[in-house]
Amino acid sequence: MKISISGIRGVFGNDFVPKDILRFCENFSTLIESGECVIGRDTRPTGEIIMNYVSASLMQSGIKVYNLGIVPTPVVFKEARKYGSGIVITSSHNPIEWNGLKFILNGKGINEKELEIITNNQNISNSSTIGNETFIESDYISKASEIIGNVKNNPDITIDIGGGAANNFAKTLLEKIGCKVNSINENIITSSRGPDPTVDNLDELIKNTKNIGFAYDLDSDRVVIVKDGKKKSPDITVALGVIKSMELGYKKFVLSIDSSVGIEKYIVKNGGKVWRSKVGEANVIKTMMEKEADAGGEGSSGGFILPEFNFCRDGLLASGLIATMLDQDFDQKLDFFEEYKQVREKVSFPIKFHNKIIEQLTKKLEDKYELILLDGIKFKIDENSWALIRKSNTEDIIRISIESNNESKINSIKKDITELLNESYEEIK
Question: What is the CATH superfamily name and number for domain 341-428?
């Protein structure tokens, strides 16, 4: 089981079992000041049974439950602003056999202190009253369309649902703002791809796209773009979201430390300000709140965040905003960001050695580069090139992220870092 502020995730019936679900939800109920909680799930086969456990545990604790059924994660976040709390039954982009719980308080993801309360063993007295469950619908689409506005010239858009919760929602939203929409992979059983569009080739979407295509992950908080017969980097999603935000007058942005330098350059060039956060949606949002930022996101996940509307990555909103840009000099804007190429790799090392490997690697790099130690080790090679090395907290891997406007430089940097990591491992093991 993986436990973090981004969610509790595991394989249901293996390391993610009913007694844990009941305990986590019971503990979460102590944090719900409103006495109300909205719940929703993605399309994973285990979603319905887990939702029943979630609902039962909350009601046992005296909480009024508002059940949205199968909905995208951004929809639950939006409704959680109204009801005070929320739980999404999802494992986001993880393999289909996985599932999990994502907790929301006052429209925002939980913090570390709240996570401790949820996951620790507690003696909680039974509520004197039993809550009830009400099935509801969300006004997300009408609210999102108000933010987005109308699209000109009825652009042709193909959407790849990936068998996920975006089904019905994405098409309805895009049609409402004035797009002509063709939808593929609507059913999870027959979907030609997996849950994560950032790693899938998206061949079917490419084949079926005339103008622009959007591919969503299973809970629709991520979206990846296809255009001109090619899958675009997930950083492009955030980049285009930033452009639209600046057109709307927003100037202050937070980007995760692994997001493209091209996005930062664009913001600064156009009079905006950028702060960097640790990797992870919750970390980006935390920094947004601290800096009172207008927008931002995680380039590596194709996750755009507009706090005015939603305190989460929102793939539905992002695709709508990007659709409004298609009548402008869209290709020129793409060209600017596509000068920068990203490589994101994993190198296997036993997790028990990760801290020592990073320590050893830091010693090897600190004399050569000015290191940024906000989240792992980041260093700048030149004004267009950088590298980031981060350990995993849950897996036997160390992540390498590299960006440059020179592909041969990327390959050279990757080779050097991999060699240094292997050297460091051999020295400390």
Answer: Alpha-D-phosphohexomutase, C-terminal domain (3.30.310.50)
- Identical fold between 141-338 and 341-428: no
- CATH number attached to the domain at 2-138: 3.40.120.10
Report which of 222, 207, 415, 197 is spatially closest to residue 305, judged by C-alpha positions: 222
In the chain, where the domains are located: 2-138, 141-338, 341-428
- Backbone φ and ψ for 97, nearest 5 degrees, come out as -75, -10
Is this structure's pTM higher than 0.90? yes
- Summarised one tens digit per residue, pLDDT across range 150-205 is 998 999 999 999 999 999 999 999 999 999 999 999 999 999 999 999 999 999 99
Q: What is the CATH number of domain 141-338?
A: 3.40.120.10
Residue 320 · residue 148 · CB < 8 Å: yes
Share of the chain above pLDDT 90, in %: 92
**CA-CA distance, 276 to 269, in Å (whole number)?**
17
pLDDT digits (tens, 9 = 90+) for 100-144: 999 999 999 999 999 999 999 877 777 779 999 999 999 999 999
Q: Over 90: is that where the pLDDT of 299 sits? A: yes
**Measured distance CA(244)–CA(236) in Å, rounded:** 12
DSSP 403-415: EES-HHHHHHHHH
